[in-house]
């Protein structure tokens, strides 16, 4: 089973991905926890290129290529082998992030994202948690982390608002695998809902 977490910056994806991995490991399941961009040594190198520096460092088109290159490496070296071995893979972001951040943020490039995905990735998650959150609260939380990976946060609040609406639309586009989770609640409350849905899906 391939599970992904999606949503705007600061919505609690990393926190919930980690807590779900812990919960499922507690059930005795074999879980690989990973993230994008990154998750393999080569993809982590690309991560630095895309997440650091000026917002205008890359065009949206160039970003589609960079994020897809990182994803292809992540898929070849970590995701596919782990799923093939019967393990559960939980990823903090995956292809839906490219559909949103590169597909919607600077013009309508969604068709380009989808074509490249079909050509080079071709895998969809079995279950996607979209953590929904007030974009201004999310941005404040993300900025509170104070790291060097702030390129997308520097696009500002307008982008976060567009991305939030985009993720809600995406959940309607892929109702079979997407579950919208209210992230404006205490961490443990969110984890309990997420773990309940994942356990039910795992059977
Ligand atoms: P994301 O991976 O979506 O950017 P994180 O999990 O890194 O989000 O969370 C961003 C910040 O918000 C962190 O400092 C985290 O501790 C905090 N946080 C996460 N979930 C909650 C929550 N439900 N309530 C309050 N703070 C939270
Ligand atoms: P992430 O480390 O998950 O940041 P956060 O914890 O703030 O949500 O992702 C960093 C940024 O990368 C995030 O702003 C979204 C962006 N991103 C894309 O633009 N396209 C992609 O395909 C992926 C995976 C991430």
* CATH architecture call: 3-Layer(aba) Sandwich
Reading the helices and strands in chain order gives EHEHHEHHEHHEH
- First-residue to last-residue Cα separation: 11 Å
What number of domains? 1
Q: Report the structural category.
A: alpha/beta
How would you state the average pLDDT, rounded?
96
Supply the CATH class: Alpha Beta
CATH superfamily: P-loop containing nucleotide triphosphate hydrolases
Lateral strand order in the biggest sheet: 2-3-1-4-5
Strand residue percentage: 5-15%
Separate helix tally: 8
Structure, described:
The protein has a single domain (2-202), classed as Rossmann fold. The chain has helices at residues 13-26, 41-51, 60-84, 95-101, 110-120, 135-144, 157-173, 187-202, and strands at 2-7, 31-35, 88-92, 127-132, 178-182. Helices cover 55% and strands 13% of the residues. The chain has a five-stranded parallel sheet with strand order 2-3-1-4-5, with helices on both faces. Thymidine-5'-diphosphate binds next to helix 1 and helix 4.
What's the arrangement of secondary structure elements?
Layout: E1 2-7, H1 13-26, E2 31-35, H2 41-51, H3 60-84, E3 88-92, H4 95-101, H5 110-120, E4 127-132, H6 135-144, H7 157-173, E5 178-182, H8 187-202
Parallel strand pairs: 1-3, 1-4, 2-3, 4-5
Helix pairs in contact: 1-8, 2-3, 3-5, 4-5, 6-7
Care to give the gist of this entry?
With 203 residues, the chain is of the alpha/beta class.
């Amino acid at each position: 089973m391939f599970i992904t977490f999606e949503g705007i910056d600061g919505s609690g994806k990393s926190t919930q991905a980690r807590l779900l991995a812990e919960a499922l490991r507690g059930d005795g399941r074999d879980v690989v926890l990973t993230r994008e961009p990154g998750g393999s040594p080569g993809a982590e190198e690309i991560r630095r290129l895309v997440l650091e520096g000026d917002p205008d460092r890359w065009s949206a088109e160039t970003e589609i290529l960079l994020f897809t290159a990182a994803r292809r490496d992540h898929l070849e070296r970590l995701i596919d082998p782990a799923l093939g071995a019967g393990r559960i893979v939980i990823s903090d972001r995956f292809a839906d992030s490219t559909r949103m951040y590169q597909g919607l943020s600077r013009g309508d490039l969604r068709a380009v994202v989808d074509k490249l995905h079909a050509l080079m990735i071709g895998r969809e998650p079995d279950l996607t948690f979209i953590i929904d959150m007030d974009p201004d609260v999310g941005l404040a939380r993300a900025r509170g982390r104070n790291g060097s990976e702030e390129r997308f946060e520097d696009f500002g609040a307008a982008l976060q608002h567009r991305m939030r609406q985009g993720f809600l639309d995406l959940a309607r586009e892929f109702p079979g695998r997407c579950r919208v989770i209210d992230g404006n609640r205490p961490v443990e409350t969110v984890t309990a809902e997420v773990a309940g849905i994942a356990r039910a899906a795992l059977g």
